[in-house]
Specification:
By secondary structure, this protein is α/β, with parallel strands linked by helices. It is 45% helix and 14% strand. 45% of the residues are buried. The structure holds S-adenosylmethionine. Residues 172-448 form the SAM-dependent MTase RsmB/NOP-type domain.
């Protein structure tokens, strides 16, 4: 329910909008990015960064804050009061991680109960937040043995990371809890990396070169895209360094007929065209609203591709029987390598999702393989850290597809130095680096003649 202060203005308070966004995430009504995009215009433009900080912050700290919330509440809130739980988590977040004075954080939380027309909850919210304020370190001491508190990741994921990646466990957890750096890709059709560094310096933006992708630059401090020189003209795009490796591995050459099979939002579609503008590129994407994102990305870069909205595994829906020279298969996955960019994964990703994703990945892999020419190449990619989605998925595939074999990741691009990640039974696994690239997986396959 809206207060008079809200109805007087078209804009609402960032805290009120954050409650809405977080409640919807908790109720599985959408992801952090889609919910933020939908509700961002509800706050004044100058409050957009605060709204983002509140929502990202709570998702980032959710495993820990949720354990504290459940510990301090005698009974969890009912589903219809998820907004109150979101409000409580926001209160914890402000008390612990923001500069808001404690009394303001508590008073505003209590006021927000009234905004939600839940006066009955004011005493409860006040009491729980005040107890947290007084006893935070004792509470943490009591809960620290819980993986959700010690590592600030869901228990099931902590277990899997420990099992599969004991050596990389600490680094993975630290990166998963960090804020990601802003990495951009320079469009070398328009400007060299060296020249773009100069352009950034002229604008007072400090950056450094990514060590692995020859087109990558990390900004020492994130900026809005409109502050990036000639962003609207397509000189640069925002893209993680590990993601940039896809196009460098596949190394498109003019004339190649290429398929980008799970393409939205089109980061890699654009990069393939930047590397070789005269390829014949088909991009397939299941979700119509996400296909529009590819369209607008390509429009900014002034490139074209054949865009098809379809399930890539249903060949009868989209394929004209003309085989491709190269295929990029960046399949839907658990996104466990990019938790820091999508921290709502800490809230809603569950082990059952992985089982579903494995089935989808397998169907896409097996069917799309038929669209590859003999002697053609397919790059299988995920932003997952779970071997079942990566090396095991490929092992199963190679078991059944006798015309497929794995080749080194620099087979198509000898200048590419493979110094990233670690070699696994099939392909390479990259782990997220605190101030560097995201977690990714790559395996390059060739079809026998
Ligand atoms: C990891 S994202 C791709 C990211 C993209 N390659 C990029 O670099 O911007 C996976 C995409 O696959 C899409 N997708 C999921 N299932 C699909 C299917 N059966 N066929 C085609 N696309 C699918 C998702 O909607 C999502 O946009």
């Amino acid at each position: 329910m809206m207060t008079s202060a809200d109805t007087n203005s078209v804009h609402q308070k960032p805290r009120h909008v954050a409650i809405k966004v977080l409640s919807n995430i908790l109720l599985k009504k959408g992801s952090l990015s889609t919910q933020l995009a939908r509700h961002q215009s509800s706050v004044a433009i100058e409050h957009a960064p605060l709204l983002k900080e509140l929502c990202f912050g709570v998702c980032h700290q959710y495993p820990k804050l949720n354990s504290i919330g459940l510990h301090l509440l005698a009974h969890p809130f009912e589903e219809k009061d998820t907004d109150l739980y979101a409000l409580l988590l926001l209160g914890f977040y402000q008390l612990k991680y923001m500069n808001t004075p404690d009394h303001a954080a508590i008073n505003e939380s209590v006021e927000a109960c009234r905004y939600l027309d839940k006066e009955w909850a004011t005493k409860l919210i006040n009491a729980v937040l005040r107890r947290y304020q007084r006893e935070e370190s004792e509470i943490i001491d009591q809960l620290i043995k819980m993986p959700s508190v010690e590592f600030n990741h869901p228990k099931w994921l902590v277990k899997r990371f420990k099992k599969h990646w004991s050596e990389q466990f600490e680094k993975t957890i630290i990166s998963g809890n960090s804020r990601p750096p802003m990495c951009i890709r320079v469009n070398e059709q328009q400007v060299s990396r060296e020249t773009y560094i100069e352009k950034l310096q002229e604008e007072g933006i400090d950056c450094f070169e990514g060590p692995y992708s020859p087109t990558s630059l990390y900004l020492k401090k994130a900026v809005g895209v409109n502050q990036l020189p000639n962003f609207l003209d397509g000189e640069v795009s925002v893209q993680d360094e590990a993601a940039q490796l896809s196009a460098h591995i596949l190394s498109p050459k003019n004339g190649d007929k290429i398929l980008d099979a799970c393409a939205a939002p089109g980061g890699k579609t654009g990069h393939l065209l930047e590397m070789s503008p005269f390829i014949e590129l088909t991009a397939v994407e299941l979700e119509p609203w996400r296909l529009e994102k590819i369209e607008s990305n390509l429009e900014r870069l002034s490139y074209q591709a054949d865009l098809i909205c379809a399930d890539a595994s249903d060949l009868s829906a989209w394929w004209d029987n003309n085989q491709f020279d190269k295929i990029l298969l960046d399949v839907p996955c658990s996104a466990t390598g990019v938790i820091r960019r999508n921290p709502d994964i800490k809230i809603n990703r569950k082990p059952a999702d992985i089982e579903e994703l494995l089935v989808i990945q397998k169907a896409i892999l097996n069917n799309v393989w038929k669209t590859l020419k003999p002697n053609g190449y397919m790059l299988y990619a995920t932003c997952s850290l779970l071997p079942e989605e990566n090396e095991q998925q490929i092992a199963d595939f190679l078991e059944t597809q006798k015309d497929a074999h794995e080749i080194p990741l620099n087979s198509l691009n000898e200048t590419l130095k493979i110094e990233w990640g670690i070699e696994v039974s099939h392909g390479r696994q990259l782990f997220p680096n605190e101030n560097g690239h995201d977690g990714f997986y790559y395996c390059l396959l060739k079809k026998k003649a």
